[in-house]
Amino acid sequence: MRDYPEVIALARDAQQRLANFPGLHMTPLEWLHMTTLVAGPAEEFTPSQLDLMAKTAATLLADVPPINATLSRILYHPEAIMLDVAPAKALVPIRNVARTATRLVTGHDHRKRDAARWVPHVTICYSTTHQPAAPIIAALGERLPVCEVRISTVSLVIQHGPERNWDWSTTSTARLQTQS
Asked: How far is residue 168's CA from residue 123's CA, in Å, rounded to a whole number?
């Protein structure tokens, strides 16, 4: 999401509203993202597998038109505060490409494991302590101003170490269908 200044502005606004609450680990704005699929631990993949996954995804994504999405609704979870990315149904083609590329390269099918659990979102912050939700909800509300984006790329990212260390590297980025 670093290529979407409007998403960064929305997240910044939310993080500023939450800044006075202890126990919230803010997602660095340059690492805002929407996870499409966790293929597995990075150490389980060889460089050639990662390359083939990226090339396979790029080939498949070339047939998927860019997707319009809206961010506004706040999702509250005991472990995080997130922006919903909607409509989820519109994003399914991207997720299916990620699953297919992973399955073709690794033989692992993620459909059975997480088919009904995926909720497209952008994490604003993680909760690192137990605290009452009501004051946080009162400060942030249920919605932020509507932010519309056109999703046109998908990146393969390697996470080195724990998520909250934000030690990630992008190995490739594929474009969705371009207008001809």
From this structure: 16
